[in-house]
Amino acid sequence: MTRRSAGTHGRHTIRDVAARAGVSASTVSRVLGGAYPVSAATRTRVMGAVRDLDYVADARAKAVAGAGTPTLAFVLDDITGPSFTHMAHGVEREATLRGHLCLVCSTDGDADQRLAFVEMMRAQRAAAVILVGGAADTPRERERMIRTAESLRAAGSRLVLCGRPPLGGDAPVTVIEYDNEGGAQAICAYLLARGHRRILYLGGAPDNSTARGRARGYLAAHDALGLDPDPALRIEGDFTRDSGHRRTARALAAGLDFTAVLAATDMVAAGALTALREAGLDVPGDVSLAGYDDIPFARDLHPPLTTVHVPYEELGRLAVRSALGRAPDGSHGADEHLLLGTHVVVRGSVAAPAAGRAGAP
Per residue in 259-295, is it b (16+ CB within 10 Å) or e — as a string? Predict the structure, then answer.
């Protein structure tokens, strides 16, 4: 009968494996970690003992010690968001290709929870921490992120901001962005080119960096044509389907005059589409509709949604490649700021406004 070490609650320890294999505990550690060469015979004995004892290494202890599978942390506000899901897929696939374990944390928008998770990853010497999505665009938030970046660098790690704006200055951070404002300007310009002048804009929270960029794009498209959009047609909210439905229904009930809806996300557009249909309106016959993100279900709506394509999976992959592109001492060269392009995907949800309905902006 195999002896179990005291205090392990029935679990075998590395010393048990060493005793079964007739080697030292450090030799078992070298075999499991793969960091040092050992003879084939020794490896066979150790792995046989591991199987016999059903030994499982303590991953937490290995992480704190800096051994075992290297780790990347992927931190986002809402794991259910389709765009974030595709970015996470890109991170996970690239991390796996490079032999890293990917840990995912959803914070529900809680800044304190986010910082606590980052601190835990710093203590466990994660190779990098990737923060995803828009953030509060305030001096206080930027200062917190700069401190976070400096703390990670001191531990040999790296902060990567994915889909977030730069922090400014010489903060030790990698920024992987997409052309957020340019995409919004392009999709709004497309609606204007089709003849729409009263475009209901369903934006995001006013302090969110992603929402601010998309709102700037909406305004820039109008400004390029010398137009001044009606402020009543800009309605802020969150990036969810229910918010899109609610805001569109309220705009219709209030008698707002518009010939097109530009939603800040495809999820918002899906809610708006339902509200328009509930009001007996045809899309695009009565009201045109456009979104932003080009998440997979956008092409399966009826009609298929005209939207802005964001390369979310490539953003995730590039975040990992950039984070791991460090020198052997863990340092980076010049801080990176990479920008990926966006483009309009034209489908069936936009048409010219009905005769006599374009109206003044």
Answer: bbbbbbbbbbbbbbbbbbeeeebebbeebbbbbbbbb
The C-alpha atoms of residue 264 and residue 287 are separated, in whole angstroms, by 17
pLDDT digit string, tens, across residues 65-108? 445 568 888 888 777 778 888 888 888 889 888 888 888 888 87
CB 21, CB 49: distance < 8 Å: yes
CB contact set of 64 (below 8 Å; sequence gap of 6+): 123, 124, 125
The residues, any chain, with a CB within 8 Å of residue 249's CB and separated by 6 or more, are 275, 278, 279
pLDDT, tens only, 16-35:
889 999 998 878 877 776 54
Give the residue from 172, 55, 56, 69 showing the smallest Cα distance to 124. Answer: 69
80-94, 239-253, 278-292: segment of lowest average pLDDT: 80-94
Nearest in space to 127 (alpha carbons), one of 160, 105, 166, 93: 160
| Alpha-carbon 200 to chain mean position | 27
What's the rounded Cα separation, in Å, for the pair 117 and 76? 11
Distances (CA, A) of 262 to 141, 154, 357: 29, 44, 17
Q: Which of the 8 DSSP states describes residue 293?
A: B
Distance of CA 326 to the CA centre of its chain: 22
Q: Tokens 């390029």, residue?
A: 224
**Amino acid (1-letter code) at residue 245:** H
Query: How many other C-beta atoms can be found within 10 angstroms of the C-beta atom of residue 39?
Result: 8
Q: Report the pLDDT value the prediction gives residue 99, as an integer from 0 to 100.
A: 84
Phi and psi of 162, rounded to 5°? -115, 115
